[in-house]
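ligand=arginine
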Amino acid sequence: MGRANKVVLAYSGGVDTSVCIPYLKHQWGVEEIITLAADLGQGDELGPIQEKALRCGAIESLVENAQEDFVRNYAFPAIRANALYENRYPLSTALARPLIAKLLVSAAEKYGADAVAHGCTGKGNDQVRFDLGITALNPNLKILAPAREWGMSREETIAYGEKFGVESPVKKSSPFSIDRNLLGRSIEAGPLEDPYTEPPEEIYLMTKAIKDTPDEPEYVEIGFEGGYPVSLNGQALDPVQLITQLNEKVGNHGIGRLDMIENRVVGIKSREIYEAPALLVLIDAHRDIESLTLTGDVTQYKRGIEDTYGQLIYRGLWYSPLKEALDAFIEETQKRVTGTVRIKLFKGNAQVVGRFSENSIYAPDLATYGSDDQFDHKAAEGFIYIWGLPTRVWSQKTRG
Ligand code: ARG
């Protein structure tokens, strides 16, 4: 059909993306398919995935280790923005998509491909993020999304693949749809589609059940510099190590689970279970160190920015003029956000119990209730008189 000659396909090694290879070739007439798998810490072995792509008919199979880029350039900016979608979801899956879009576009440019492809269906958020990310970075590339058009059921997809040598899944496939990376796991479908059904314990891998967590609390100290997490318990760590070690510690205390009904970009409500132990705690800690180092008006103004930032990430606008403008604002606010936050982990709760910063604008001599209080109590009266003038006038007119 001549939709494209040479395509770079985002590849996970799963059935759907594997079937995309023969489908693109035989149904859509693509001549050359290069697959690209990104290592984002999802824990799959990428060697076998690479071979599998070739067996399915790819001419080249690329694997990129993108963990460092992922944490440093996607997760950390989101932490500085305290980005949560609908006040809860820390965007652990969503943040991976603009990075994968970037890798697809640069591979397409390097190999002279005229299109990129992905295996997303037409109901999800990820198609939006891929398509918009790719378009923003290279508007000349065609985007092919065969699973959005092929209309095959799961069984039909497997059967189609088998005709072209795509092995069907060995184990009985799980009823859940799971996305995983260094930041977390997103679990949906199967029995979870009933919003009243409690998630079964076996879906969780990064967080322990409370009955299995330690009976003693554990304290962690997270160091921030310019709004970036830089250390754990006094030890400087690179971004990937920091997330990995913190996931382990926090998950061990059963912290970091979410069960929510969210509003997808395409208008559907869906029920999603998340595990994102380190990311959730880092956002809490970051917000806390900001409370010590930013003035109240900046914090309050930033809250609106944070909400918009979370929506941008969710809705696929990572590469956009609005995102860049918000980044400039956030950058300015983060200059002084340096310090340490102390957190107590215990039985499913991460509680901030202390914070310290050289840049603290907390003034003990003003805050104290002790005898060394420097606050001018008398001045409060005049302040309240003027601040309350509108109230006084209104009250006199309506009640006086
Ligand atoms: N709802 C999440 C998001 O839009 C995760 C999507 C992928 N989830 C999954 N279980 N496959 O970012």
